[in-house]
Hints:
Elements: H1 6-12, E1 27-35, E2 38-39, H2 46-61, H3 64-70, E3 71-78, E4 86-90, E5 98-103, H4 114-134, E6 139-140, E7 154-155, E8 158-160, H5 165-173, H6 177-186, H7 190-203, H8 217-230, H9 239-245, H10 251-270
Parallel strand pairs: 3-5
Antiparallel strand pairs: 1-2, 1-3, 4-5, 6-8, 7-8
Bound molecules: zinc ion (ZN).
The site of zinc ion has 7 residues, from helix 4 and helix 8.
Amino acid sequence: MKNLPQFLILLLLPLLQVHAQKKEIGKTLAVWEINNGSIKLDKGTVEDNKAKVYWEYMKKVLPNEFLAQYVVAFRLYTDGKEEDLGGMNPLDESNKNWQIELDYIDNDLTSNDPSMLEDMDHTIIHEFGHLLSLNIQQVEPTEDKYQDDERGYLTTEGYAKKDSYLGLYVAEFWKGDLLLEWDEIAMKGSRRRQKFLLGFYDNYQDQFINDYAVESPEEDFAESWSYFILNEKNEATSIKDKKINFFYQFPDLVAYRTEMRQHLKSLNMDD
Ligand SMILES: [Zn+2]
């Protein structure tokens, strides 16, 4: 996705979705139960074998304690090539039980194309970014339909706590008018929304890592998080660089980065 030329990305923007979606997308191959970080494989089917390979790969890359604590299900699905690449969804209002999802055509572990694996790494790290920022420790469930500014930023899962990663991120990078402007666009019907989002991205290109990041503060966060994990540290000269460097202030996230980069390196050496 990140390797596509810019004009193509703009054309494909409405189709490229990897966000925390509520509604089930694509055709399900199967869903597996995850218990304390282990996948339940009892059917011995071709699908089971496939799921095992994906799950082991994700366990090698992503912090295992999060997977054990929150992830209770894994879904393989496809909506065809591109469009939706993956998802991370809470299964109930508690924000304690999550389902990770991968499109098995966009994330093909049997492919010999190295960019396929790079894209999959980006996708699973992006999805993990949603779990990191929207789990019950970070977000307070609420009945509120509209944001009460006193309580902070309202996500689909509830209010991002003020000292949460996302709460701090939004307070720093989505100040006042920017969030209001985005919010007005977000409330439009889907076709008009995409058109206005492209305009929003054009106006604020210096602030967003890519055009997908304007989808929402949550997507912006997950993209910056992915760049933080996958790229070398740079001096922050622009706002978009500052968004990537935002994560360096948290020693636990820096430790995850070091660990994840080591795992990615050893996986690449296995090839
Ligand atoms: Zn996302």
